[in-house]
Each structure stands twice: as structure tokens, then as C-alpha cells.
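Subject: for your reference before the review

Hello V.,

The reviewers asked for a structural picture of the protein, and I figured it would be easier to keep everything in one thread rather than splitting it across files. Below is the amino acid sequence we used in the manuscript, unchanged from the supplementary table.
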Amino acid sequence: MRAPDMCLPRGSITKPSHRRAPPSVSVEVERTMRDVPRERLALAAESAYYLVTGAWPLLHYSSFERVSGPKRDDWLVKTLGLLLLPIAATLALGAAVRPS
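And here is what came back from the structure prediction:
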């Protein structure tokens, strides 16, 4: 048995659009041309952030502790710093490589 139409919320049923969609190739090219610089910039910025936060406790631990507060386990902070460096390198590589 079918539910009556009055049970449906207003605007839930829309008429199909009769507009003609542009060819998918031109849409893809347009998206690539517009979004790639923004995506690369985001990858580069994130890479720089991870590089700084990963290398800082390894290079000068006392200044890192002054800014972020005292830490109980020095080895844990330095281990996390070492783990962040390859992540930063991977993000930098993603920002540098051109999409194919």
C-alpha cells in the first residue's frame, strides 16, 4: 500500500532538470585548471607545518618545551617528531608533482 502524498515533506520531490549538461571532459579540465593550484598550496602549507613541528623538538628541545610546556617523556616527543618528518616529505612531494 502506498503512503499518501501529504506525508512527504515539501520540496522533497523535484522535477527533473531539462538543462543540457556540459560534456564531462570540459568540466574535468575546468576543475583541474581551477583547483590544482589551491590543492598544491594546501599540500605545501601542510607539509611546512609538519616539517616545523616534527623537526623543532629534534633541533632545539628546550625552546620547544618553553613554547609547548614541560613534557614528562622526552623520548616520546622526539619519536613523534621523527614520525612527522616522512609525512611532511610525502606531502611536499604531492605538492611538487604535476597531476597527470
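For the response letter, the relevant points are probably these. The CA atoms of residues 76 and 82 lie 10 Å apart. Helices lie at 24-59, 61-68, 74-96.

Happy to draft the paragraph if you're swamped.

O.
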